[in-house]
Amino acid sequence: MKFSTKRKLAQLFFALFANANVAAFWQKALYRGGLKGFCFPGLNCYSCPLALFACPLGSLQQALASFRALKWQAVSALTYVIGIIMLYSLFLGRVVCGWVCPFGFFQELLFRLPTPKKVLPPFFKYFKYFLLFLLVLFLPTILIGPTGYGKVWFCRLVCPAGTLEAGLFNMALRPELHPLVKGLFYWKVAFLLLIVIFCIFYFRFFCVVLCPLGLIYGLFNRLGLFKLNWRAEDCLNCGVCRKVCPLGLKIPEEINGCECIRCLNCLKACPTHVIEINLSLEPAKKFDSKRAFVKSEVCAKMEEQQTNSGQ
How far apart are CA 236 and CA 94, in angstroms? Predict the structure, then answer.
C-alpha cells in the first residue's frame, strides 16, 4: 500500500470516528453524551448532529465568552480547554492537520479535482494570525452582550467547517428550522462556497490562510514531541523533498516550520533517507544555512568531477 494511501485511510478513519453518531439520522438531535465533554484534536463542529466530541477552537471561544458572566466558575472550563490544546500541541503539533483533521481531509479531496493548480503568495499565511487574535481571543472576551456573555466570533462569522457540518446538515435533517434562517446563514453558506472553490485550486486554502487552530499547533512544531531531523552530511541536495511538498515549503529550511502539516511526503520521498522523525521534547535546532551551503557546494563539485571523469 502506498504511503499516501495510508495517510488518506488515517484521515478517513478519524473523520468517521469523530462523526460516528449515526443515531442523528432518526433522532434528528445533537449527541449530548459524555464524549461531548472531550475535545477532538481537529476542527470538527460541536453542533454537527453526527459529532461525538467538542471542537477545541469553539470550546476556547465559548470559555472566553462566558468568563465575565460565570467568573470563577468558568476558570475550570478555560483551564481544561487551554490544557487540552497545549497537550495536543506538545505531543502532536500539526500531525493533527495532516493525519486527523476532518476538514483538512475534505480540502484535500477537493484539491484532487482535475483543475489547474495554483500557489498562494507567502504573505497570505499571516492572515490567520489576525483571525486568531481578533476573532478567537479578543472579541469573545471584550464584546459582552446584555446577558454578560460574549459570542464565538470565529465560529459565527468564518468557520466553514461549522457551516458544512452543522448549518447545512441541521437544515437537511430538520426542515422546521428553515423559517429561522436569516442573513448571517446566507453569508456563511456563500463563504463556504468561496472556500470550496479556492480549495479546488489551492492546496488546503483554509488551512494556509484562515485556520487559527492549525496556527496554534504549528507554533509548537519546533518545540513539541514530534519533530523532523535533517542530516546535512548525507544530503545529496537533489531537491526531491521540495518537489513533493504539497505546501511548497522550502525544505530543509522549513522542515519544522509553522506551516508544515507533517504529511511526511519529504521523508518518504528522500532517496538517501536524510529526513527522520525525532520524538523528543528537546527544541529543534535552527536550520544552519552555512552548513547546508557548504554541503551543496561539495555535492556540486563531486557531481562535476564524476561527469568529467565519465567523459
Answer: 27
For the segment 294-311, the average pLDDT, to the nearest whole number, is: 53
Count of positions (residues) in the chain? 311
**DSSP codes joined into one string, 110-176:** HHTSSS------GGGGGHHHHHIIIIIIIHHHH---TTS----HHHHHT-HHHIIIIIIHHHHH-GG
Domain limits of the chain?
A: 3-218, 226-310
Q: What is the pLDDT of residues 66-111, one digit of tens each?
A: 988 877 777 888 999 999 999 999 999 999 999 999 999 999 999 9
Q: What are phi and psi of 30, to 5 degrees?
A: -70, 150
Beta-carbon contacts of 278 under 8 Å, excluding residues fewer than 6 positions away, are 227, 228, 229, 284
Distance CA 272, CA 241 (A): 11
Rg (C-alpha) for the chain, rounded Å, is 22
Contact status, residue 284 vs residue 257, Cβ threshold 8 Å: no
Strands 226-230 and 275-279, bridge-based pairing: antiparallel
What CATH number has the domain spanning 226-310?
Answer: 3.30.70
